[in-house]
Amino acid sequence: MKNGKKSLIGILMLTLFLVNMTAPASAYVYNGAYWYNGIAPVQKGTSIPSSWSTALTAAANTWNNVGTNFYFSWMITNNKLNYAPLLPNTTIASTYPDPSGDKMIGCAVTFNKNLVWSTSGESGKFDVQNIATHEFGHWLRLGHSSETEATMYKNSATGETKKRTLHTDDIQGIRSIYD
Predict the structure, then answer these.
(1) Topology classification of domain 28-178
(2) Is residue 147 among the annotated active site residues?
């Protein structure tokens, strides 16, 4: 009987070890505030090229379609997407959140007009949808992930489109806030 108990304990310990090995680790960062009603109003500023509309809508819908109690809503608001020069020129885009305590009351994004942009993932140009999906993650108050394949990873490159879709880590991040 002693050997049976030892075998059973060994099997249970091995099972726990294997389960913990395959469980994904969370690398996302949550910066505290959230949109209380689950809706983030957003508007394209007048400086945004009209050719970007489809890519920006797709970027917002990437987060909208996760199945949480959160939604980007296009409407007239002070929460704008802008297209203007940013310094240093290595800054691709910048998000400016406006939290009040744990409540988000506003947000804006500026895409760097000094850089070359594309809506088709063109080589040598930054992809609008790729970058917008990342910046919309900051609207959710997600910080930069240490997971290199995540949409919220801090670096991006010209021609990159992988951030158009969410990584498991990004999904865990939004679900931790809005589920």
Answers:
(1) Collagenase (Catalytic Domain) (3.40.390)
(2) no
Dihedral, CA of residue 26, residue 144, residue 132 and residue 42, to nearest 10 = 90
User: Domain limits of the chain?
Assistant: 28-178
The neighbouring-strand residues paired with 19 are none
From the candidates 122, 135, 147, 160, give the one annotated as an active-site residue: 135
Encoding tokens for residue 76? Answer: 């007239």
What is the pTM (predicted TM-score) of this model? 0.85
- Across the chain, which has 179 residues, the per-10-residue mean pLDDT values are 54 44 68 94 96 98 97 96 94 96 96 98 97 97 96 97 98 95
Place of tokens 């030892």: 6
Of 105, 94, 41, 48, nearest in space to 72 by CA:
41
* Closest of 76, 71, 54 to residue 140, by C-alpha: 71
